[in-house]
Amino acid sequence: MQLQLESPLDMHLHLRQDDMLKIVAPLSAASFAGAVIMPNLLPPVDSAERLANYRRAIDAAVGDLTFEPYMTLFFRDYSEGELLTLREHIIGIKLYPAGVTTNSDAGVAALEAAESTIGRMEDLGIPLLVHGETNDFVMDREEAFLSVYDRLAQRFPRLQITMEHITTRRAVELLERHDNLRATVTLHHLLITLDDLAGGLLNPHLFCKPIAKRPEDRQALLEAALAAHPRLMFGSDSAPHPLSSKECSGCAAGVFTAPIALPMLAELFERHGALDKLQDFVSGNAQRLYGITPPPKVVRLHKEEFHIPAAYGPVVPMNAGGTVTWCLS
Amino acid sequence: MQLQLESPLDMHLHLRQDDMLKIVAPLSAASFAGAVIMPNLLPPVDSAERLANYRRAIDAAVGDLTFEPYMTLFFRDYSEGELLTLREHIIGIKLYPAGVTTNSDAGVAALEAAESTIGRMEDLGIPLLVHGETNDFVMDREEAFLSVYDRLAQRFPRLQITMEHITTRRAVELLERHDNLRATVTLHHLLITLDDLAGGLLNPHLFCKPIAKRPEDRQALLEAALAAHPRLMFGSDSAPHPLSSKECSGCAAGVFTAPIALPMLAELFERHGALDKLQDFVSGNAQRLYGITPPPKVVRLHKEEFHIPAAYGPVVPMNAGGTVTWCLS
Complex ipTM, two decimals? Predict the structure, then answer.
């Protein structure tokens, strides 16, 4: 049994820098025709020069593989002149609401300072990508932020806003309320709940932000993904950390899924009789929502047990040592 | 500034066996006049011989220190003859409801098989100590079990039932409903929520079962402890694991607090102006509820910054490397 995917896209990806970039970029490029590249480096990608340098480093790491890095900038105040110059090099600007504290009112207040730049982005047709969490109790952070999305969507009706890596039923419901809201969802949030992280032994390799939520949340995300909800896109949020930063006393957040995402998605969609929806979920929706045309690239999978490696270099993938019923051809 | 505690008791303690026992037993005996010793060894403590052997090993590990190990048996079907023989050597029998699955109805069903032994315990005045969790979603497990406590308390009105290591507001509320229910609460559940485990970096040394819950749960536990609620007792659930079982891909549940519990409790109760309630919380309530008279032992603390060690042998304590404002004299 074979499966062909046309130009699959990963709409939320961390590629890191230097040695880690060289390890993980080819793994994404083996599966995907392109990916939206997160800008949260040290220092963040927030200038034309850093953007160009990062793009060059990614292209070098990918080598001859067909792979379009859809670059993003780290949100700060940008002048209209800057945005005009940068616009053609990016797919959007990523907002990490650092000032967002304790409740959504404060979130809105902190965002008010950002509104002039957001207004310029709306005028210039630059999408806003948002890590939508407050600093509330860890299980409440996404839901507490939803009112900020609600307000942004109303206040900037022509702005395209992506709720990144949604994890709750209420976030799925919010998609219905505003035409200018869309969302990405990860592989791991379709598969796990807090139980998988902490219900038996604690598994640091499933620790991520936003944290995996309740069974009813996963169910809502899964139903939306399996139906290829027209405003939902696959974004792995694949986030590599070396083993030494995961199996330790202060474990970094992030699940590494890039090399296994398509086989595991195929397995999941097949199990639910929804393989016919996978193309839209991993490419069609993103092309339509962002108005992008990725490089032509056919990725083939076949039905064969694939043993997930214990590690890719220093990085332990999700389900390391396990198996998946589909395999990249 | 000095604080004297008369015969402080730890009403829920894991001492393990062999080398670990030799490391941790003296640390508990340095702070406490006695402790209720959990029987979940491999194999479990469920016979007169194992009970006697374990007691002997504990006494040997404690050496010359004044320390009464209040022994428990692991729950199984016990005949009346067995219970009559064992009764004088134990403070109670600990039930880990292994058959409890997915919901409290199943929990009750699984417990029905246990009811003849529980009935004998009631008749003989042997307390029942319970790990009250179902196999539901990890944040719901204790609340889902409360209906089992409710039923047990009604069905066996003369049975003394201890809800071990309670973690939720609703468990505190349930204490009001039945005179024959009492509870232990740990130090860590008075201090942390799921945020401390997983809200920032993931901290495996704060991973425990039951998992730390929500801020409103901690608040309810704290209010009950600070008031020395007459049916609430301190039980550390101090559970030592070697570092290699904590900072790894499958981290064992347990927080090690035995050597720092009294200083941290003094700090906590002082901060809330409740130092006058500490004696009842760490000894008086337990003496009254179990009808025990621990060996006379005055434990003195003084106000001095204590630097919590990075490890006690192979075991990392809670707040390793941090400080606490009270110190054992």
Answer: 0.95
